[in-house]
Amino acid sequence: MDFATIAAQLNAGIILPEGIILATLVLVLLIDLISGKSAAQTLPYVAIGGLLLAVVALYSQWDVADPIAFLGEFNGDAMSIAFRGIIALSTAVTILMSIRYVQQAGTSLAEFIGILLSATLGAMFLSGANELVAIFVSLETLSISSYLLTGYMKRDPRSNEAALKYLLIGASSSAVFLYGISLLYGLSGGETNLNAIATNVAALEAGQSLGILIALVFAIAGIAFKISAVPFHQWTPDVYEGSPTPVVAFLSVGSKAAGFALAIRLMTTAFPLVTEQWHFVFTALAILSLVLGNVVALTQTSMKRLLAYSSIAQAGFVMIGLIAGTDAGYASMIFYLLIYLFMNLGGFICVILFTLRTGTDQISEYAGLYQKDPLLTLGLSICLLSLGGIPPLAGFFGKIYLFWAGWQAGLYGLVILGLLASVVSIYYYIRVVKMMVVKEPQEMSDAVKNYPEIRWNLPGMRPLQVGLVLTVIATTLAGILSNPLFELANSSVTRTPMLQQAMISHQQPTVSIQPIQNVDAQI
């Protein structure tokens, strides 16, 4: 076999965006090694440039004829392009908000960016992985990098505690997920490609279908950990509170997007015969996440813990699109995650700015902030109101699309619960906004009374200002321009053969319950 044939089979050009990010990672480390601290001001912009170049490369592959690479291990279809773009953009914004934070902590910015880019690579490969080994290696690349980032502030006991909790719970979830996919490997007769697994599993005898259900439960448990779904959310509040805030921002968007990409690909490709069962499991996860995430958020006193429970609730909203299993459902998931990128990261930028200036993230300390910092107040208010779903901001249209997709799919109870959960979430978001805006000057908190002079010319502050302005503008305009963005998301779904095939098979009558009845009869 000659080189040209091997190259054609590998089709390595599909992972050009990941190659650009890998080259950027190596370049960042080399510049740091050669120039040392003198290059600290340029390294973030090198990394952001590489990420934006990767997004351009993703866009250029939108209409690629053959998206399958590495003999079926990676699928660069339109859906994976959308998710990989969201992940790359989330990392670019995260780097903008990291510069001042990491430098003030006295740690190496180059190493932080290097680990963050490694996590980005893992998340992007996970979004397109089409084979069990590739899925697990990508998942562990993302997970291990996340553990390192969580404990990056070595001198902070809270960061060390968060990293330890995240490591222990994450290792357990990885083991559970690995057991689930190992069952798939065995039941399919030694296949690792998802399409081959689906074909072989369809030919199983009735008595073996119980093994498929066990594999399904274990696989969903591993995915639920990544997307912070109840009851696999225990790590989220503690890790969000103790970790460096930029790391939390990346985990809330980049890691969550990769988890949902994995959920869509694994469920629709490897488990088509038990669609009703995984719909039922994700429905239970969505209900629990919506209820617990919003109710517990009402009692929080820390902004980071508030955003942690908000993140749990947001996962419940996104799962409505997954359970719907239609074109509109998957498109609304992609659209919501795209706008969630801007409104959630914008909120975290505001939390970082307030923490850098006051040294606290307690909600009560935001009282009267409008009197001292109108820009920060406006930015945080817009981002929180968008997360709550207040029109005409982007979050309102994101939830409308999700609820409409769920209603069309017959998920009436789940949509009504989602509407009620949105009303609850508006209360705790508006509580923060009211505290910043309505408080009289004499009711200012001590932190706001001693608020330092606003200086954007300090090292690393200008990128924070740019990130804040960009995310607020994007959150506002994404609501006004929601239709073109939704058309883009819908196009990514209609151009993905995997999803179209899954919807066709779902519309056909299934006999997925029959094997369970046979097992009961045998017992």
Automatic annotation (TrEMBL):
Residues 129-424 form the NADH:quinone oxidoreductase/Mrp antiporter transmembrane domain. It catalyses: a plastoquinone + NADH + (n+1) H(+)(in) = a plastoquinol + NAD(+) + n H(+)(out); a plastoquinone + NADPH + (n+1) H(+)(in) = a plastoquinol + NADP(+) + n H(+)(out). The keyword Transmembrane applies. The keyword S-adenosyl-L-methionine does not apply. Pfam families: Ndh2_N, Proton_antipo_M. Residues 12-99 form the NAD(P)H-quinone oxidoreductase subunit 2 N-terminal domain. Keywords: Membrane, NAD, NADP, Plastoquinone, Quinone, Thylakoid, Translocase, Transmembrane, Transmembrane helix, Transport. It comes from the Bacteria. Its EC number is 7.1.1.-. GO terms for molecular function: NADH dehydrogenase (ubiquinone) activity; oxidoreductase activity, acting on NAD(P)H, quinone or similar compound as acceptor; quinone binding. It is a multi-pass membrane protein. The chain crosses the membrane at residues 6-31, 43-62, 82-102, 109-126, 132-152, 164-186, 206-225, 246-266, 278-299, 306-324, 330-354, 375-397, 409-430, 464-486. NDH-1 shuttles electrons from an unknown electron donor, via FMN and iron-sulfur (Fe-S) centers, to quinones in the respiratory and/or the photosynthetic chain. The immediate electron acceptor for the enzyme in this species is believed to be plastoquinone. Couples the redox reaction to proton translocation, and thus conserves the redox energy in a proton gradient. Cyanobacterial NDH-1 also plays a role in inorganic carbon-concentration. NDH-1 shuttles electrons from NAD(P)H, via FMN and iron-sulfur (Fe-S) centers, to quinones in the respiratory chain. The immediate electron acceptor for the enzyme in this species is believed to be plastoquinone. Couples the redox reaction to proton translocation (for every two electrons transferred, four hydrogen ions are translocated across the cytoplasmic membrane), and thus conserves the redox energy in a proton gradient. Belongs to the complex I subunit 2 family. NDH-1 can be composed of about 15 different subunits; different subcomplexes with different compositions have been identified which probably have different functions. This is NAD(P)H-quinone oxidoreductase subunit 2. It comes from Allocoleopsis franciscana PCC 7113. The gene is ndhB.
